[in-house]
């Protein structure tokens, strides 16, 4: 028999779907606006006349921006720090969370409190910089990776998650003679893929978007990240646009006026270049979020 739906339920569903659709459009529209301005007539974009649909579509902005000095090297540095930083964070935080979940660990609660307390107290930028300098991490690529090996929030997530796994599975391996490392890599990690995927996305997004550590620690331009290059180029958008225009004029090329770079086109294009990888990866991994966060949240 079909279930009868009341008028109140129908009204609620309509309002709910309408509100969620509106919220989705509000979240998506800024990215759509940046994209259509990056591929439209540059003069019209600089005048703010590109709002809902692209006009005079071309991709010269992306070709010219990707030719800017340092973009390729910065993209490699950002990719390397994202991959290595995510890998090290996953291994360090997950193994510490696994260790703190063991009742036989000496002073387990004391060490767990030491991890938690770092979430509430921060020494500040100057002591952090002095510490990084003393460790030899100024103008050093590993400054992007080593400080994030253990993240207290991820340790808590992983510890809570593995506590929801049946102890019998690990005990059976222990009876067969498996040590902690074997049980961790062969039993715990395969069963923890939802929380691993969740932490991996959080870490990768944070690593890709970070630029303050580059600002404070790096003086060698070969170690600049793509986000930091974006920060610099956005500040110099007017100078870059003028340089590109003069280069086109000096080369005596027949350039369409609509394709001449403007500060607005540079800002929009660089923003899309930097944001695109996250826009592609994030939706693919999003399906792990709810499962990864919620499993282990309810006890009993």
List keywords for this structure.
68% helix, disordered C terminus
Give a quick account of the main beta sheet: strands, pairing sense, barrel closure: none
Query: What is the C-level CATH assignment of the domain at 69-235?
Result: Mainly Alpha
Coarse morphology? globular
At the fourth level of CATH, the homologous superfamily of the domain at 69-235 is: MetI-like
CATH topology of the domain at 69-235: MetI-like fold
Mean pLDDT: 78
Q: How many alpha or pi helices?
A: 15
Strand content: under 5%
Beta strand count: 0
Instruction: Please bin the fraction of helical residues.
Output: 55-70%
Radius of gyration: 25 Å
User: Cα distance, first to last residue?
Assistant: 36 Å
Poorly predicted ranges: 249-254, 296-300
SSE series? HHHHHHHHHHHHHHH
Overall SS class: mainly alpha
> Which architecture name of the domain at 69-235 does CATH use?
Orthogonal Bundle
Q: What does this 3D model show about the protein?
A:
The protein has a domain at 69-235: MetI-like (MetI-like fold), CATH 1.10.3720.10. It is 68% helix and 0% strand. The chain contains 15 helices and no strands. The protein has helices spanning 7-38, 42-46, 60-65, 71-100, 108-117, 125-134, 152-162, 167-175, 180-191, 193-209, 212-217, 226-235, 237-250, 263-285, 287-294. Helix 10 packs antiparallel against helix 14 (263-285).
